[in-house]
Amino acid sequence: MKKVALVTGITGQDGSYLAELLLAKGYEVHGLIRRASTFNTTRIEHIYQDPHCPDTRLFLHYGDLCDGGRLAMLLSKINPDEVYNLAAQSHVRVSFEEPEYTGTTTGVGSVRLLEAVRLAGVSCRYYQASSSEMFGASPPPQNELTPFYPRSPYGVAKVYSYWITRNYREAYGMFAVNGILFNHESPRRGETFVTRKIARSVARIKAGLESELFLGNLDAVRDWGYAPEYVEGMWRMLQVDEPDDYVLATGQGYSVADFAGFAFEHAGLNWQDYVRFDEGYVRPTEVDSLIGDPTKAHQLLDWKADVRAPELAAIMVDADIEALGCSGTPWIDKPALMSWAS
Length: 342
Ligand code: NAP
Ligand code: F7E
What we know:
The structure is a single chain. This protein has a single domain, classed as NAD(P)-binding Rossmann-like Domain (Rossmann fold). About 40% of the residues lie in helices and about 15% in strands. The protein is built from ten helices and 13 strands. The longest helix is centred in the N-terminal third of the chain and has 22 residues, at about 100-120. The two termini are about 25 Å apart. NADP nicotinamide-adenine-dinucleotide phosphate binds near residues 32, 87, 88 and 184.
């Protein structure tokens, strides 16, 4: 029988790849989207269909993680088999500027959704988008047993979501899991995250539209993987017999300077000729080094990351060069029919 999934954050990087994956697996997919004064559906336009077509399997619903009543109503109406909670204020630097908003969305938003599942009496499997940022100052390699030491309001909010997910699993017997994902990127990455900022700037410098790239801390080390591979891991976490928490990572760390080097070199440029330091991008507290140990996911989910940072940088630079050329978004391959299920 056709499975039904609800994805929050469907308009984001991961939500768009996950929606593609679930549709390819035959799911009926429902996505929560926020009302905005401009379109925020660019990443999913290419998979959206006319909701009146008989074979439509993607439905969008207005809602917000700050609106618990609406979430409960949607849960009752959709009655999903699987819920993926990907929605969040996901930018670490921004969380220092908006700590309270980040707390109510990225933290308390998760309990609103879990409570909506519980109150609606829906029997479903629940995925929580937890983050390596929860490890913060705990030294690498980090795995499922590493103590949390968050270093930003975002990291603190994600720790709350992690524990409330475990609490609902233990208190109410819910099939609720945490995917503790290390950084994962793609051509769909938001333009203010460092990898996309670098890739986009390389394309613009190559095209003669820019001559400098301003960055903050170049020494921070991250374990960068490729987002399409990570959404496959999310799905696998909900297909096993018992609910559990898993780290997804490549196991390899590179500095921001390394990533800049890979990206500029791919375009035939020397990064040191273009990258400048801007203190404005330095965070009040930094996470120096995140390198994940994905052994558990490999052993129990048969999941592993294949794409590493040098190849990822090349994928992202190529996509941004192509996007500049066609002045659009390279992943959109067919026209969109925009309308909403409710
Ligand atoms: P993203 O591109 O920033 O997408 C965030 C999504 O959340 C967007 O669809 C956004 O909607 C939605 N959203 C934000 N606030 C909301 C609210 N109050 N109510 C409903 N929806 C809201 O993030 P991503 O990179 O895809 O990451 C997906 C999830 O994984 C996030 O929870 C993130 O914190 C977590 N995570 C990401 C990484 C990573 O490296 N990418 C690693 C670990 C964990 P709009 O489009 O309307 O803004
Ligand atoms: O920063 C440094 C910055 O913003 C990476 C989110 O998806 O992954 C992401 O969080 C590093 C940091 O990602 C700039 O200081 C230097 O050390 O790309 P980022 P993030 O903070 O690691 C985790 C796992 C998540 O869960 C989050 O949702 O790069 N850096 N110069 C810079 N960062 C930015 N953004 N911009 C700069 O100019």
